[in-house]
Amino acid sequence: MPVKWREHIVTTPDILRGKPRIKGTRIPVSLILGYLASGNTVEEIIKVYIHVNES
Fold this sequence. Notes:
The protein is α+β, with helices and mostly antiparallel strands and 55 residues long. It is 29% helix and 7% strand. It has a two-stranded antiparallel ribbon with strand order 1-2. It starts with 8 loop residues before the first strand and ends in a 7-residue tail after the last helix. Pfam families: DUF433 (PF04255). InterPro entries: DUF433 (IPR007367), Homeodomain-like_sf (IPR009057), WH-like_DNA-bd_sf (IPR036388).
C-alpha cells in the first residue's frame, strides 16, 4: 500500500520558519532525509526519534 506522505508532513509558518516537518513534532523533514542519505536505516532513526514511526 502506498504511503500517503501528505498526511505526515506539514508546514506551519510560525514553527521551524515554515520548513516541512513531521506532523505532531518539530522534527524537520530535512533532518530525517539527511540521516537516510548518510546510510542510517529507518529503524535506527526511530530509535533516536521515538515520535517518528515507519508510517
